[in-house]
Amino acid sequence: MSAKLQRQRLIADWLRDDQVASQEELVARLGLAGIVATQATVSRDLEQLGAARVRQDGAARYALPDANDASLARARLGRLLGEWVIDIIAAGTLLVLKTPPGSANLVANAIDVARLEEVAGTIAGDDTIFVALADGVTPSAAAMMFRARRAEG
């Protein structure tokens, strides 16, 4: 098993089983497990795992997306739209979302996991996402919805 995979499995297990409040806490736990990692590495791992900071019982913690937890998936989507989407363009019957190179798959996955009723599906390239809209959804209305979620993120 690669070091990255081992590290990410440990992080995922801790996020499922415990309340982890910070990236620094994860770095410390990894250190105790004999795995040297920096905060930047843990930050990338959390992003790749799809983890998001959520409030639960008044305290912030990291949590993994759950297919049944729409609020967590939508919070992650808003954050990713805010961080990674450069432009949102209504084009015919589609939306085109522009991202920095290498970021489109991350954002497209978040859109798919959020299961928005306005979205039928996504196709992602390196820096471009095509968003197929559900029947009856206009591209201009969907663009406004994505812009609002981006502003919230």
Explain the overall architecture.
The protein is an alpha+beta fold and 153 residues long. The protein folds into two domains: 3-63, Winged helix-like DNA-binding domain superfamily/Winged helix DNA-binding domain (Arc Repressor Mutant, subunit A, Orthogonal Bundle); 70-152, Gyrase A, domain 2. It is 50% helix and 21% strand. It has a four-stranded antiparallel β-sheet, covered by helices on one side. Helix 4 packs antiparallel against helix 5 (104-114) and helix 4 crosses helix 6. The protein is elongated and about 55 Å long.
Helix content: 40-55%
Could you list the spans in which at least 5 consecutive residues all have pLDDT below 50? none
The chain-level mean pLDDT equals: 88
Tally of helical runs: 6
- Look at the structure and give the CATH class of the largest domain: Alpha Beta
Coarse shape: elongated
Backbone structural class:
alpha+beta
Beta-strand segment tally: 6
Short description:
The protein is 50% helix and 21% strand.
Key descriptive features of the protein:
single chain; two-stranded antiparallel ribbon; Gyrase A, domain 2; 21% strand; 153 residues; alpha+beta; 2 domains; 4-stranded antiparallel β-sheet; 6 helices; Arc Repressor Mutant, subunit A
List the helices and strands and how they pair.
Layout: H1 3-17, H2 23-32, H3 39-49, E1 52-56, E2 59-63, H4 70-84, E3 87-91, E4 94-98, H5 104-114, E5 119-124, E6 128-133, H6 139-152
Antiparallel strand pairs: 1-2, 3-4, 4-6, 5-6
Helix pairs in contact: 4-5, 4-6
